[in-house]
Amino acid sequence: MANTTTTAKPPRPGGWHIASRVLAALIPGFVLTNTAGTFFALLMPGEKALGVVWLTVLSYALYTAIIMWVFAVRRLRTVWLGLTGAIAFTALGAWGLYLLDSAA
Known about the structure:
Number of strands: 0
Number of domains: 1
Shape: elongated
Structural class: mainly alpha
Mean pLDDT: 88
Oligomer: single chain
Distance between the termini: 81 Å
Low-confidence stretches: none
Radius of gyration: 20 Å
Helix content: over 70%
């Protein structure tokens, strides 16, 4: 008797699925890298110029990690909501830190 069980193959993502991930990695990924860099530069103690230099160097690693995460996550909704939430958090945090710093 032959083995009649078959394993279901996962559906192949269509062109829109891949295009959405590429778009998410390029535009929101870049925006998140910049807002996170600004946020952490404002958080660093000491001279602001030194913080900007350090975070400019680290931004390459951050952008690479964001791109890998975008393609590693299973669901597109998680990608877009995660990027949007992280951008909102870092942008609002950087704006708040800037306002606190300029008021002092």
